Amino acid sequence: MCFRIALIAPDADTIAKTAGAVVDEWGDEGWKPRYNIAITSKHPLIVRQGAVLHLSPATWGRPSAKGITANTRSDTLLNSDIYSKQLLRKPCIIPASGFYEWKKVGKARYPYHIQRKDKSLLWLAGIYWNDTPYSQFSIITTNANQQMIPLHDRMPLILTTEEFGDWFDSPLQRLHEEHSVELIFTPVSQRVNSVQNDGPDCQTPTVEPPAPPPTFFENE
Question: pTM score > 0.70 for this model?
Answer without folding.
Answer: yes
